[in-house]
Records
---
Amino acid sequence: MAGQAIDDKGISPRILVFSTNNISDPGIDLAGSSHMHYPPTVVVISVPCTSGIKPEWILYAVEKGFDGVFLAADGEECAYLPDCTARTSHIVQDAQELLGQKGFEPQRVRMSGICSVCAAPFVNHMKEFSEALIKLGSARNPAPASGRPGNDVPQH
Amino acid sequence: MNDRRIGVYMCYCGGNISDYVDVERVRETIANEPGVVVAKTAQSACSDATQQEMIQDIQEQNLDALVVASCSPKLHTFTFRGAARRAGLNPYQYTQVNVREQCSWTHTDDREGATKKAINLIRAGIGRTMLTEPLEPIRIETVPQVLVVGGGIAGLRASLGLADIGLSVLLVEKSPSVGGWVDRWGTMYSHGKNGKQLIAQLVDEAKQRKNIILLTGAELVEKSGSMGNFMVRIRVSGQKEDITANVGAIIIATGFDSYHPGEGEYGYGIDGVVTLPEFKELLDRYDGIPIRDGKQIMDVVYIYCVGSRQDESQENPNLYCSRYCCNAAVHSSILVAEKNPRAHQYHLYRDIRTYGKYELLYDQSLETGSTYLRFGDDEPPVVEKCSDGKVKVTVKDLLTFGEEVEIKADVVVLVTGMVPRRNDELVTLLKLPVGRDRFFNEIHPKLRPVETMVDGVLICGACQGPKNSTETVASALAAATQSASILKKGYVELDPLMASVNPELCDGCGECVAACPYAAIEMEEDQGKKVASVNRAGCKGCGGCVPVCPRDAIDLKGYTDAQIKSMIDGLLKEIV
């Protein structure tokens, strides 16, 4: 399966993507209409703007079973908020803190600007993020921190 | 508990979904979800017949919400909202689930994975729909005036169309005169009219209409507002004061640039090697035998696909077929034959695309003595300068099994295609979506061919991709008609995307007021305490205030805290 990252048990990480209705979601659509592949364990919820995402939703998603959450932000292109990138990064930081308090690695949340034609960059992000999440291990059954390759996260 | 009665319809999309997703298995699983009263599949959910079936089910089964799992919400949200409305349902009780662009098409290699994903995407859609509430769209009065950017044949024709429907037009052209490319051309196919005269006639007609204002040497420099009522600022060169106006829609008709070959590309730079537009200008100068450098043009070689269908390994390649150039080159060769029946003409092509009625042109060129030779992608013709002033072209002709042919030509015409015109300021200003080929992007080439992702901003003509003048005029008129369908009603309805504050939770801290750049949140007294309140007209619905609230007192309608969590639950539900 092209472009899929799979761990040694044949499971690819569950990733929740928050996209935006007018900019990044069309970019993700374009990946589909171009028949580019990413794992089907990646699912998307589209909202008007990533600045409206509650850090609690990210924690909720990880607690309920997602291995990672990706914010496909509008960046400079945001039609609503000129400081959208700064706001979204702040949300990511807050979410990382919340994740840390519950014993999850902050690397489980990522953000990047995805534009309306960013099909290939999105697919690459999903590939890289999946690989990183495989190294972290599943969020549901965390492996002992010491035995986890690539885990340099301070424990909270 | 929730006692919703939801109808779920899953689309085959004629194989686009059902080839990669087990649609019937999805239906069976979904039918058992709580709240689902009707679960059906359809070959084509957007068809009139299926919409009629939905309406019937909603009415007969007393459904109070609708979920459609088909293509991207960008395509059919309005279609199914309309179906819901016709069935007597509030249109915001419907949820679109994207199982095509974000499922079947992107997991063509994993039927099991795609099927499971479709189930969970629909579960999320149901989860969201469980918690929908009836909403009323925001109604905005529209301004019956349209801004048209670009005064070529597309902009002129769109302006006339708009004026005749009864909409005022502000036509803005950047250069000192209107007319664009067509104004430079002589005889055009298929009507045989002269381009220059055609433009003069359109300008004349525009002048006769009182509701068209034409500004040349003018540029759009600022835009605010939204569909139905934009404020635009136009800068006219030589004038101190900018012009501001209110318009209901904006049509972009900024046209194309011609591909400019690099130095040495197919011999470009050698005397006698010209581009197609350069050759057309030369042809138009002579009624009789065209002359170049004091010599009659007797031998012409055309090299096709210059600047089009370029190799992917090139830097910023133009991968697309430029569509108009085969016809234009074949047409030019017929004009040459008319002016000089003794001329020899050789067409060196990779593929010929004289589609539709242009096939007749191709036949005509054969009858007038044109010779066609086909070269392979990997063995392009070689163009060299000769000592006698002619240009030598060497090509391996695939039609004669690779025979090497040498032609000495007076003129070598590089059949150059259309390339996107650089319009960085306009793209930034209007947030125009640019496609893979760097032309402006419509929402859908067939279903919504002149609309963009930016509501109220339309595109037409060659700014959205290579088109000949006939196709350009057709799309210009489509843009005019689409503007009229937005503006003639007198109002537009916008999504009631809006934040709302729960006054019971709000403690009046004012964080949200500071977070809103639109000043749409104010503090007011509510039962003796200070609480935040969102002003319906000012709120843009971004949700930026939602995560800022320390009391979790703000929700964005349609994207509430409970709905997002319900969607997350749906996405994670195990599949047995």
---
Amino acid sequence: MRRKVMVLLLIVLALFSLTGLAAEKKLTVISGWSGQEMDAFMPVLREFEKETGIRVDYQIYRAEDLAVLLPAQFDSKTAPADVIFMWAWFVNKQAQSGHVLEMTGLLNESDFVPGILDAVKSGGKLWGGPYTGKIKPGFWYRKSFFKQHGLAVPTTWDEFVDLCARIKKIPGVRAPIASGNGVGWPLSDVAEHFIATFGGPAMTHDLIAGKMSWTDAQVRAIFESRLVPLLKAGYFSEPIEWTMAADLWWAGDYALYFMGSWITGMVKDPTDLGVFTLPGARGLVFATDYAFVPAYTKYPAEARKLLAFLATRGQTLQVAAGGHIATYTGAPLDAYPPVDREIAALLKGVEALPDLDDTIGGEWQPAFWDQLKLLWVSPARVGEVLETLQRKAGK
Amino acid sequence: MHTLRGRALFFVPALALLAVFVVYPVVNTVWLSFFTSEGKFALLGNYAEVLSQPEMFDSRGFARGFPYGALVHNVMWIVIHLPLTAGLGLALAVILREIRGGAIVKSIIFLGMVTPMVVGGVILRFLFDGNVGILPSLLSLVGLPRRTLTAYPDTALFSLIIGSLWLWTPFSMILYSAGLETIPDYVYEAAVIDGASAIRAFFAITVPMLRPVTGVVITMTFLWVLKIFDIVYVATMGGPGGASNVLALQMYMYAFREFNANSAAVVATLLMLVALAVSIPTFRSVRGEQQ
């Protein structure tokens, strides 16, 4: 009798575990968003759950950490998540090794900003999906600060230099422009803006493609005659951890801060924000977040469904939270908060450019960040910095 | 014989684990270092290639200043950090042994040792920050410019070396404290009767009798400094411009940024050889003295 009860119990347990497994179809999404950014992203995932009944877990990993973690996991035919947000160059590199699920046919290319899918295409196949992007429009300032000190937005390079000189004389201001640091990407955004402004969009494309050398006379001229004089004059602060720099800038220690459009979600009063590009800018960096599905996902169909949702309807939900600009053209303008509508308008008349260091990636990316940190505190070493960048680019 | 075989069986699990998790990775790493990323045998070609990179050794540094390359930076870590750690640890152990409440002070100092190195790196970053750091504030009081010490090539490496002292000095302090307890009191009493001063007793009794401990402190500190990574990664990422780059970070860059396992294996092998060259003679000499 006891034996029969035990057998029955085991059968019931086995059935329960099997039904449990069948019901537990749960996807995991990884991205680097934490804090406020994560809070803005979670409603998108919850909406997907509501629509499909598929549960989604969210985990935070920085792209820098994923670059270390993923290759080892992929080599052992496993993946930490079903949908992963990562650099486009990394997605393509892993796709070449067969670690990424093909997404060709999943998205209608005409539904997106032209060229936006190119970054995750290789060999004529699509390997990932675009999410929203962030514009890196230029120098942010507080309207109240400019009004208080009688400052005006510059319309020429000379006016920009003159503005910096005037700000430097304001008592209590440590330097006209706050320089964000951390891993190093905020400085690269500044350098990319100078390249896009004075070298034009073509120079950005040529540097990415390796058609132009970093020691080319035209590139050298931008650094030596535009950026370095500002650094030597002390118009840029030394590199400061970027969130701390944002606080100091908002508090009036610095007057200008070069940052991406996500800053609108980081300040207390977005209506006090103003932004201007370097006069004459012909291109603006539009950095898109990309996601991909690893080949080792347990639920490829569900993961594809989630990726398609994120790339389309998910974007509409995301932009409503602020700080993001949709790459999906189906996202209506009235979905944006007013401040983001203004940012989206900045793209009119200028070319949307890929993020230079994110696109080149690899060993070159941290070298770019690191060399710019050197340039910021030792501008006289500009020649050495450019030579190092070219040496790394040639590898 | 039967008993011996039976006993040997107990070693098998441990040996199997060592073979899988220590011997195989070591042998495979050395093996990888002799091959190119295309899988061609290169003998010492990889070593020549890696060692000729400015990231490893940059002779221009001797005319221009930092960076000098990871190899030279590691040597600097050893030359500066090792004697300071050993000296400070010994001094603290001797001083705190004599004073009331020394055990409490030692416990407080020991907090540095139990702090994870990554956390230590973050603390160092803020400690040297020009806006919120204590050290730049103190330096500005004596008229020096208030700047982020880890942001400049001429001060980044030294800041990390000096800053990391509080993370590792507790280790040598604890070892020396334990060593001091093994010196019998009557040796000092005899020295006092013979008219020796405290300083004379320190150099004639304490230092020689702590030689085995010093050997362990030097070896362990050397190995710690040789593989230093986390502090540098978090605080400066080897920058600016490679001015605080070290061998372990360069190995990481090869492995996880270039995805070049062969170059990373070269650095790993070099690190292992240096570690063996230092630790084996030290442990031999300590064992010889004990015998």
